[in-house]
Specification:
alpha+beta, Jelly Rolls, Arc Repressor Mutant, subunit A, four-stranded antiparallel beta sheet, 8 helices, 43% helix, 23% strand, DNA-binding, transcription, RmlC-like_jellyroll
């Protein structure tokens, strides 16, 4: 992981902020001040950007690649809470806690880069620019809605239904019948609230029934309508 010192200070940071919809309509002078308080960060897959429990002094605007939010169970298993790609933020809402500390470990899922935005500078800009504060609040409200729906789904669906929804969603993101699952089977199981053995048993059942194929790590949906039927039966 590398802090990049550009021969043209803060140009890349300013361009990244200017391109983000949160800063539409914000004056150039204000953006330049925020850029001056920011630094460009490059990371490789597996790099730790932030650690869970670490004091928050900056948030990350991901511009290239992807960063995962991870926690670890007492048994050492990983809980991947989500993945942030270009245009997404990591730890931005945490800046507004009474004692800001990172809620997750931020681990690079791929090589990339982003803008480390100083927390105090961003808070100051929110106080001066109500439209920016409103956009940050809207982001927080959308996350609350998303996580409420997720909790409802986890507590009202079967393990097979949850896995079907996840696989179909990954296929939709990939725009193909060959979804990139991105996580290990153990990580997917933890994310979906089931044991790894349960996930393996469901996948084996789907293979026997001809719903999917999985050869040499290549996952393919053969009968998407059958997986959708599992969701419609909820």
């Amino acid at each position: 992981m590398t802090i990049v010192n550009s021969p043209f200070p803060q140009i890349r940071e300013a361009d990244s902020l200017r391109a983000h919809p949160w800063f539409a309509g914000i004056g150039e002078a204000a953006l330049e001040r925020l850029a001056l308080a920011s630094t460009w960060l490059r990371f490789d897959a597996g790099n730790i950007v932030f650690s869970e429990g670490q004091a928050v002094t900056a948030c990350l605007l991901v511009c290239e690649g992807a960063v995962q939010g991870v926690r670890y169970t007492a048994g050492g298993d990983e809980k991947v809470f989500g993945q942030v790609g270009p245009g997404g933020w990591f730890s931005v809402l945490t800046l507004f806690q009474d004692e800001p500390r990172h809620l997750h470990t931020a681990r690079a899922a791929s090589a990339g880069g982003g803008c480390l935005v100083d927390g105090q500078a961003l808070r100051d800009l929110c106080r001066k620019e109500p439209v920016l504060a409103e956009r940050v609040l809207r982001h927080g409200a959308n996350l609350i809605r998303h996580h409420t729906d997720q909790i409802d789904w986890l507590t009202s669906s079967s393990a097979e239904e949850r896995l079907a929804e996840y696989v179909l969603r990954m296929a939709q993101i990939a725009d193909t019948g060959r979804p990139a699952l991105m996580l290990t089977h153990t990580q997917i199981a933890v994310k979906l609230g089931m044991r790894a053995e349960t996930l393996s048993r469901i996948l084996a059942k789907w293979r026997r029934e001809g719903l999917i194929s999985c050869q040499r790590g290549a996952f393919r949906i053969l009968r998407p309508e059958s997986l959708r039927d599992l969701l419609h039966s909820v």
